[in-house]
Amino acid sequence: MTTHAWVTQGDQTRPDAVVDECAVALEYNGISHAVMMATPRDLADFATGFSLSEGIVDNREQIYQIDIDRCDRGVTVAIEVAGAAFDRIKRRRRQMTGRSGCGLCGTESLAEAIRPIQKVSPVSVSADAIEVAISHLREHQVDGQATGASHVAAWAEADGRIVLAREDVGRHNALDKLIGAGAGAGAGFALISSRASYEMVHKACAAGIGALVAVSAPTSLAIDIAADAGLTLIGFARPGRYQTYGTLLRSAQ
């Protein structure tokens, strides 16, 4: 989803595609929980994936209804969840304002920021599968190619064939949308157009994804928790190359 703005380059003025971004408020059972800056598309997927990856619900069956209300100032996504899930929200009640989908903004303590990681069954990803997925990733970056300002998260089968993809101005949002759309089933892997941060690894594990492949680098915390969870973590995935990460080697300070 893009809009256009007039830009001047040299002595020429022309319309240029820009990615859509607006405030998306997530409400659970009528109570405001989070406001994220996001691309206002695939918002039912976003709400579902966010609810799963943030541990608000245990499964999709605990989400009863999703209503989307658009207005001039942004979008409100009203999510009706089971009583047990709503009780969990109230226990850890917080207001969280994110910048382009930063999942940690607004947390109030270290314990809340670094949450327990869900164990997953590691998935082996072949070099051929990575090559196939990387070579076709741009085909699923419609907004990204038009604007240069959108991330994509894709789900690839074991042979590297991409079967599902979602875009967003925020990398966390793109992964949440992918999770909400149904990624994580089977022996495939998630492919992201960004770095692999702690939050991306945590979301992948929460969805039961066994392998995360990033086109950029992972962070030290992402490597640590991926090893603890059993997640296969691959970075710098480019045509003809990639790196698989294991336990960190720490030097004495």
TrEMBL record:
In its UniProt record, which GO terms are filed under biological process?
Mo-molybdopterin cofactor biosynthetic process
Intracellular or extracellular location(s): Cytoplasm
From which domain of life does this come?
Answer: Bacteria
Write down any Gene Ontology CC term. Answer: cytoplasm
One Pfam family, please name it: FdhD-NarQ
Where is the major localization of this protein? Answer: cytoplasm
Keyword annotations of the record: Cytoplasm, Molybdenum cofactor biosynthesis, Transferase
The catalytic site is made up of: C102
Which residues make up the binding site for Mo-bis(molybdopterin guanine dinucleotide)? Answer: F236, A237, R238, P239, G240, R241
GO MF, any single term: sulfurtransferase activity
Matching InterPro entries, A to Z?
Answer: Cytidine_deaminase-like, FdhD
For this chain, the family text in UniProt reads: Belongs to the FdhD family.
Q: What does this protein do?
A: Required for formate dehydrogenase (FDH) activity. Acts as a sulfur carrier protein that transfers sulfur from IscS to the molybdenum cofactor prior to its insertion into FDH.
Q: Which NCBIfam families match?
A: fdhD_narQ
Q: What is this protein called?
A: Sulfur carrier protein FdhD
Q: Name the source organism.
A: Litorivicinus lipolyticus
